[in-house]
């Protein structure tokens, strides 16, 4: 069910992605990976090699397998933010999930859109029996760390040299939220 977030720039719809969103979602993901390659484990070239049909099939699968979900922020037909959440594959880990791919277009930052998308993911997790949500965020991404903290996440450790990009290693803070 879609939520409406009122911002100074207009009303934003927060909802689950559908296969019809595949083209715009792929573009938004490639934007995120291109603008902040150090922040994401995914590689932009590998992601770009995946066609829209792959994205549409992936989103359709997510809707039926109850293990993963992608939430998006939309303004007048334009996707401006996204986040994914996936829970453990094995019976012993189905109670736990990973929040991934959180991104908001720079023109829309500072309006708490990421928090609304994260809350949509948390709602999905709760509805699917998840009790703990984890994430990793590079230590230099101070605004994201503040956003996750406002969303109820706490640091529980550091993953040294978790990402490597352009001859630089980046440590990640490991964060958790119990729900």
Descriptors:
32% helix; 5 helices; Aminopeptidase; alpha+beta; 179 residues; 8 strands; single chain
Walk me through what this model shows.
By secondary structure, this protein is an alpha+beta fold. The chain has one domain (3-178): Gcn5-related N-acetyltransferase (GNAT) (Aminopeptidase). The protein is built from five helices and eight strands. The protein has an eight-stranded mixed beta sheet with strand order 1-2-3-4-5-6-8-7, with helices on both faces. A hairpin with an 8-residue loop joins strand 4 (78-87) and strand 5 (96-104). The longest helix has 15 residues, at 113-127. The radius of gyration is 16 Å and the shape is globular. The two termini are 20 Å apart. The model has no long low-confidence stretch (mean pLDDT 95).
Spatial order of the strands forming the largest sheet: 1-2-3-4-5-6-8-7
Mean pLDDT: 95
What name does CATH use for the topology?
Aminopeptidase
Number of domains: 1
Cα radius of gyration in angstroms: 16 Å
Q: In the CATH hierarchy, what is the architecture at level 2?
A: 3-Layer(aba) Sandwich
Which CATH class applies here? Alpha Beta
Q: What sort of overall outline do the alpha carbons produce when their principal axes are compared?
A: globular
In a few lines, what is going on in this structure?
This protein has 179 residues and is α+β, with helices and mostly antiparallel strands. The chain is built from 5 helices and 8 strands; from the N terminus they run E-E-H-H-H-E-E-E-H-E-H-E-E. It has an 8-stranded mixed beta sheet, sandwiched between helices.
């Amino acid at each position: 069910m879609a939520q409406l977030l009122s911002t100074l720039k207009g009303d934003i719809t927060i909802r689950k992605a559908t296969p019809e969103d595949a083209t715009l979602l792929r573009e938004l993901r490639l934007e995120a990976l291109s603008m902040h390659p150090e922040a994401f484990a995914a590689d932009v070239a590998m992601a770009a090699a995946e066609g829209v049909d792959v994205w549409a099939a992936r989103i359709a699968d997510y809707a039926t397998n109850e293990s993963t979900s992608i939430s998006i922020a939309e303004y007048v037909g334009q996707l401006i933010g996204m986040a994914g959440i996936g829970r453990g594959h094995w019976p012993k880990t189905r109670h736990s999930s990973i929040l991934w791919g959180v991104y908001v277009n720079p023109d829309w930052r500072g309006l708490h859109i990421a928090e609304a998308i994260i809350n949509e993911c948390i709602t999905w997790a709760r509805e699917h029996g998840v009790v703990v949500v984890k994430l990793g965020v590079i230590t230099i991404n101070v605004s994201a760390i503040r956003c996750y903290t406002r969303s109820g996440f706490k640091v529980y450790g550091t993953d040294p040299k978790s990402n490597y990009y352009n001859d630089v290693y980046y440590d990640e803070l490991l964060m958790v939220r119990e729900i």
